Sequence to fold (180 residues):
Amino acid sequence: MATTRKTTDEVTQEQPKGLFHKLHSAKQHIGKVAKNATNPHFKKSYADINALLETVEPVLWDNGLVLLQPIKDDVVMTQIVDIETGEMVESWMRLPLITDPQKILSAVTYFRRGTLQSLLSLQAIDDDGQTAAAAPKVKPAITNDRFEKALLAISKNEFTVEQLQSTYLLTDLQLKAIQL
Fold:
C-alpha cells in the first residue's frame, strides 16, 4: 500500500486557521492608518473612526474576521469574531453618565475609535491625551436607577463595589447602602 505525503502548503490549506493566527495575518497587512481629521483645540491630526474602519475592515474580511461594535449596558464594545469558529476577542469601555444625546453620540464614536485602536494595537496619536492627563479626574454622580442596576450587578458578581466607587461619586446614602 502506497502512502503519499502532503506538502506543508497542503497541510496548512486543509487546517482551519485559528482566531489569533488570522489576527496576526490581518495585523501584518493593516499598516498605518491615514490621519484624516484635525482636533481644532490642539491642532493635531488623527485618524477618525471612518478612516480606521476603511483601513481595518477590508483586511479583517479578507482574513475571515468580522468587526462588531455593539453597545450594551452603557458599555461600548469592539469585538472581532472569527466567522468560521465564532471565537472572539473584545475590548470595551464604560460610557460616562451623560444626558445630552449629542454628547453621548460623540462619546460613543470616541470610545469606538479607542477600543478599536486598543484591540488591534494600532498606531495612533494621542490627540487630546495631554489635556486628559492634566485635568483633575472628577467622577460623575450616579442616578438612583443606575445605582440600583449596579447593586443588582454586584449581587450577581458581574460588578464590584470597588468598580462602583472608582467610577462614580456616591452620595452618603449610596455609600451606606453598599455597606449593608
Remarks:
- Helices lie at 8-14, 19-30, 49-62, 101-120, 129-134, 144-155, 161-167, 172-179.
- The chain has a mean pLDDT of 79.
- The chain is about 50% helix and 15% strand.
- The longest strand covers residues 75-82.
